[in-house]
Amino acid sequence: MTYEEILKNARGCIGPYCKACPVCNGRACSNQMPGPGAKGSGTLAVRNYETWQNIRINMDTICEKQDVSTKLEMFGKTFSAPFFAGPVGSVKLHYGEKYTEDEYNQILVSGCAKEGIAAFTGDGVDEMVMKEGTAVISANGGIGVPTVKPWDLGTIREKMELVKKSGAFAVAMDIDAAGLPFLKNLNPPAGSKSVDELKEIVKMAEIPFILKGIMTPKGARKAMEAGAAGIVVSNHGGRVLDQCPATAEVLPEIVKAVEGKMKIFVDGGIRSGTDVFKALALGADAVIIARPFVTAVYGGGSEGVQVYTNKIKSELEDTMAMCGTFSLDEIGTEQIWRG
């Protein structure tokens, strides 16, 4: 199966909102929500994508020829590449009737684990979403990251027990999900969290805690104060607040603020192995890719996950070789150009 075949297959079954575009750049879905689109003007998903495209690569092939390694060591695990599949919840609401939440996670988590990377799983008002997601992670040897919504502390405590039983190597919270329109005024309640509340949540977790939805140095420092092991520089794909900067625009100053004291992930419009390279050059430790993995699952199932993962990894390997960088540690700001 080719990636083009995956896209063609997905277009016939991915629901009314996503168009399974050749390049997932946010233009066709725009401000269409529910669905994969962005909030308000619908321009932030587009800005995320286009900002990465405006960063260029500095080629350097005057070097000794070596084998390229994309291996990543993180939280006591070794991964084949520095990218992860992002959390996607409410798949029937956003992407149509083909898969239940559990069926989607079964394919994604196992497919990623087979390829040596990991998938983040989602959360929802239906308690079965977290139960099923953590069960899938458990069945795959703990290779997955459950993502808990910012519920009230009592609900979070219950969900953390499921996380612990799964054997997951880390857990995340998408703190910015407080702005999702379909989570407002629902029960259990979801909303922003203070540093002290986050400290309590970190203690509940007992495994590396990743806070997703950081867009400022101040936010990164507060996450560090709370005891987070990692952060995700993310504006939730433009789906929670209109008119934010792109993640690539704020990543360098957040990297500077963190000073290497936490792991830094970044998401938002990263669509190729070359984009992954750019993110690492700007200081990220790893990236998260969400919407294209949905297309891979809908268009090819387990084989789709394999094909897409290998596509991104191959593009990263090629970029690294053409820049004279043969391990992830060698990638830095000298390999990119920003006009």
UniProtKB/TrEMBL annotation:
Protein name, as recorded: L-lactate oxidase
- Residues holding FMN: 212, 234, 236, 267-271
What highest taxon heads this organism's lineage?
A: Bacteria
The residues listed in the UniProt record as binding glyoxylate, with positions renumbered to this chain, are 239
Query: What cofactor does this one take?
Result: FMN
Origin organism is Mediterraneibacter butyricigenes
Where, by residue number, does the polypeptide cross the bilayer? Answer: none
GO MF annotation, one: oxidoreductase activity
Residues forming the catalytic site: 236 (proton acceptor)
| UniProt KW keywords | Flavoprotein, FMN, Oxidoreductase
Show the coiled coil region(s): none
Domain FMN hydroxy acid dehydrogenase: start-end pairs: 37-339
- Catalyzed reactions: (S)-lactate + O2 = pyruvate + H2O2
Q: Which PANTHER family match?
A: 2-HYDROXYACID OXIDASE 1, S -2-HYDROXY-ACID OXIDASE-RELATED
Record PROSITE patterns: FMN_HYDROXY_ACID_DH_2
Q: Which family does it belong to?
A: Belongs to the FMN-dependent alpha-hydroxy acid dehydrogenase family.
Q: Which Pfam families match?
A: FMN_dh
